[in-house]
Specification:
Gfo/Idh/MocA family oxidoreductase (chains A, B, C, D); Dihydrodipicolinate Reductase, domain 2; homotetramer; GFO_IDH_MocA-like_dom (chains A, B, C, D); 10 helices
Chain lengths: ~375, ~375, ~375, ~375
């Protein structure tokens, strides 16, 4: 059977992780149709070629448009900074290629809307699009959603989400495109807060009505690696309070200044029948409190999410032999291939990515207006 | 030397804990002047007498005014519901008695202001007043303040505080005075949120400028133990975002619906040089991250706060033989006795209690106004 | 009703903790007959008087025999070093006084046998004796036993027990009577290992058949506080493997050189239907794994042992307001008073204390014989 | 440059993990000479072919001898049950192929000795051999060794190691070759206990003098998947006490009946200057206690071993984005390739594998002789 050719656009951190996923997916999850790492596109031809050799892609180019239009490319995987997502994704969808686009979907709501429109049109022609909110595919979080759907928490009353990092904690940490509003769209809010917003819609199957927010930039001038001073134009930390449509009270925080926390996605979800607690720094564990247990033996139980009957786990190692960060990307590739094969829409699609973008915009609007409750726009 | 006579007003949960503290303080912490448990006041004479016998108080009365005016009473310890604090405290201070008043100081800002005025006048006559924000005296939190004062955290950028309980989680949990706005002033916000507000000013030595808040009442009708239906007129959960005067970004949550959390005061404080993390459910531990350590060996260290050189610990047991909830009340009594002996003001005084009340009011105002940033009133 | 008079012999660490228990027990646990702290006996009259004042005992003496024979003394509480236990306990029992004796019961099996004989004779006259293995009364461990008795673990296959401290870790830590075989009987093995041996018989309701052991003394010369050099004649660490009569495989370790562990009693008990895990450094928690749960949601659950329906807890504070080290001593006093009132034998009695002594002896014998399996003597 | 061809013998659990490592190593760790997955050998030709396709090996065979002798094969990777290790390894070494052999090295000391002799001879011809004790390459454990070598623990006094699993916990779990002494050599002792023995020599750079042991078989009859009853001829659990040559007191346990523990390699190592604690179920963390810190701020610190300056980490993801079980196998392949390139001996070699085998034999001898101390044979 003819292989599915993939074009990877971008070969920095995300490109490397996605490469590992594309190399691994067919070896761990059986798929009828093989995957081929056809071409890697970058901005510089020589560096793209070197990256292709290192990461295992056949061809290399400095022209993403060319890569996207190739006949032997069926999937376009976008791993570039946010300001180029819309152009690449729309071009690829129009060319009839399935698209996997890193998050956040775009840098503005307008771009995200255009992408969602393009994705809608492409869908009619059987072309799939997917937003790369990978943490949905950490088995502990997939299990969390299952437990919520099975009503193990009852009515969900409170949703708390924090994404804590500390890489900007050092005032001498260098300036990068991630601190530039024009390229990144937003700071902690867009980069990691977007994951929390997506996890909210994923885990609860519900969307936010509105938000009340504050943003902070603790260090507003930094230096690029070459010594040039630069203005930080994004948030270092974002906090907001919100309500889900179904009434759940929610709090969110994204910070790049949480000393000692490296990639701590911390969730605690409380319902009338139980609660869940999670920290990505212990990504193979999910804590579950079953409030229907007798009080004498009730307690948060630490589920080691490595059993064969846990999501995605049957394909991997025996119980107790934990997974790492990159595995969620392999699961993402697996789910996309499955959707393509089955002719169904993978989740999250661009519409869910657009929703995340709208929440980000509402957060910024609220923060600019003394924290007043700001509704989330709907189309 | 003539003993210091104590009058205890109220003999429910708080009265019982305070009794244990008054029994213990002189046996563990050496004080020149002995303490006498002189009289216990309640609303019903027979029940007060029974409580006095059980808890070890000499006399009993159903007339707190009489107790407060006795010549052999030097300290009045107020453990009643919030709506009677002002009357008792002001009467006691005017009668020249030192006052220890349970938190929150009052049910309204107006009451708290009157109390602070009375405390100010009494101070001029050498009469002391103290608000019962006991968690300051959990050794791990006293140590936390020391570390912050020693600049181990550098500039404090973020302060996060949650007080999670789940005793209302059961929709059939009975109605009590704590759910009645008239008697309790506020719900989770006043009862446990007040501790967080106080811990903020205690740990950071700073006060909040303003807040942006939401309140939630998840179950608004309950039944009294006798079956009478009653309206819940207070919040079940309160969340708010705030800024300290010095710029620290802060988030607060108090909830009585956090399934599985019994008395979880969870703090995480991030600074430029380090961070602290605490959970009262492991009250003998403080986690400290020293960001000045080489990254290869940096990590949150779990300090078991039971060493002789930790606050209050020299008086107790050897290292590793942890303390419990009630010990902070013994420390509180010890600190009050020390202040009385030394002729200094114990902390927190009624002014700090008034500040907490003002924050509570601002939170309610903000929540009633779509979360808009609401400044904290100053006198 | 005439109060029960208590004579306390010894007023060092244990005497102070027992005093706190005797002060507290009647205030927290209702007993018909009040308890009186009648007399404190020490080796020096002036120091005994000072201790009595500080700790709240009416009389003081430097003659324990006199104290033990007083008509107004009904309970003798022995808190002296191990080499005087037998004399005091036997004299008290012969005088018809109930005896609570600190652990380990004695310094030799011969002494412990004599004490058990005396306890047996006294029992016939309604006189009670109790060995002070207090950790049985930490609520989490009392709950552990309940769960085992309720068959929640099924057949118990493995029992692992460690008691880790580090107070000798510093080679300059001073010499004390605890390092002198003549006075202490044994080192870590007797002082803390004895608790583990008792917890084994308590939790499993079973006794050891024999042991295979090694002892280590890492620092064999130290200096007394006055500078005199002294030979360490006890073990610094003891490890042994054993089998319970019912077939459970067991491992034990007691160490005073476990850097960073202050009073870590660590248990892990595995059965065919579940497992329990405990660490005294988090004494309000018990971890329970229910192997009958579906594997998808099974996990060690952290039971916060502070609920009203947990052992001893109804008498204390609301859920989540944890207890400390000393509370187990109050429970011990409560259980002794209950047994005296009911005319039943408190547990553990001197026979159980004698068993512990025999295991200690077998451990020492095995260690002296290249670790060969050494059976536990029976009478 | 001509690629290094690898022959994989065996394609069950270990073969699958090794395949993932060989696929990944060159993409993550730069090596001048590429690696080729040349041939996969199994016992059944059809199943081998299927496995080769699935796991990404070019050729397949049911004749390992043929595979081993191919000119385009330079490395033989042995992932078969223990009883075939010696034959394959010796044949490969004699054919001049580098060998990576899964642990335990063999099923008997005699086999292991023959393998070590063959490895010694091969070494003289520049042919390398390596025993697959992969856990050395979990970054947290590599870091542990670094800290010990840097004297951060001072003199190591105690070494405690447990390897807890529960897959035999269910009495209806099926019989497999791992429960057959003839094929597996030993039970928990050989399978997982061997890792602990290796970690001892790796972390401490020291070997055991002798052991005192007990073995247990809790369920001695099981059924094969086809229903045939079979006798369990290996241990279900092994416990032993030992001394390292340098004086460190050591305890070991391997169990397949520890309910709730899935792959818990638990270490605690205490020295005069500090301590380390580790649990593989949280494999990205190492706990370190620095006893030279002031007691007021000392505590076990949880090092998240995901920093660029931690072992192997620079090649992977940013801090906080943890690794999984399989990564240690990629590190193993990387270290073997480096040794081959550099012309040095990789560690652990077959001599270290032979030492592990000798300890296993001594444990079995001691257990058969009432636990008496049994010295470890030396050549």
């Amino acid at each position: 059977m003819q292989p599915l050719g993939v074009a990877l656009v971008g070969h920095a951190f995300m490109g490397r992780v996605h490469s590992q996923a594309w190399r691994t997916v067919g070896r761990v999850f059986p798929h009828e149709r093989p995957v081929e790492r056809t071409v890697l596109a970058g901005v510089d031809a020589a560096r793209a070629r070197r990256a292709a050799d290192e990461l295992g892609w056949r061809d290399a180019t400095d022209n993403w448009k060319e890569a996207v239009l190739r006949d032997d490319v069926h999937i376009v995987d976008i791993c570039t900074p946010g300001d180029s997502h819309a152009d690449i994704a729309i071009a690829a969808l129009e060319a009839g290629k399935h698209v996997l686009c890193e998050k956040p979907l775009a840098t503005t709501v307008a771009e995200a809307e255009a992408m969602a429109v393009a994705a809608g049109r492409a869908r009619e022609r059987g072309v799939r699009s997917m937003a790369g909110f990978t943490y949905r595919r950490v088995p502990a979080l997939t299990l969390a959603r299952q437990l919520i759907q099975e009503d193990r928490l009852g009515r969900v009353l409170q949703f708390r989400a924090r994404y804590l990092q500390d890489w900007l904690h050092d005032p001498d940490a260098p300036f990068s495109w991630r601190l530039d509003r024009a390229r990144a769209g937003a700071g902690a809010l867009g980069d990691t807060g977007s994951h929390l917003i997506d996890l909210g819609q994923y885990l609860l199957g519900d969307t936010l009505d509105g938000v009340s927010a504050q943003l902070a930039t603790f260090v507003d001038r930094r230096h690029a690696p070459d010594g040039t001073p630069a203005q930080v134009t994004v948030d270092d930390a974002a906090v907001f309070i919100a309500r889900f449509g179904g009434g759940t009270l929610a709090t969110f925080e994204a910070s790049r200044f949480a000393a000692g926390r490296k990639n701590a996605i911390q969730l605690e979800i409380s319902g009338t029948k139980g609660a869940l607690s999670f920290d990505f720094e212990s990504m193979n564990e999910l804590s579950f409190y079953d409030a229907t247990e007798p009080s004498g033996t009730a307690g948060f139980r630490r589920i080691l999410v490595t059993e064969p009957d846990h999501p995605y786990l049957r394909a991997w190692w025996p119980a107790g032999h934990g997974l790492g960060y990159e595995h969620a990307f392999t699961h993402q590739a697996h789910d996309l291939l499955t959707a393509i094969h089955d002719g169904t829409d993978p989740a999250p699609g661009f519409e869910e990515g657009l929703y995340v973008q709208r929440v980000i915009e509402a957060v910024e609007t609220s923060a600019a207006n003394a924290g007043v409750h700001t509704p989330i726009a709907t189309s």
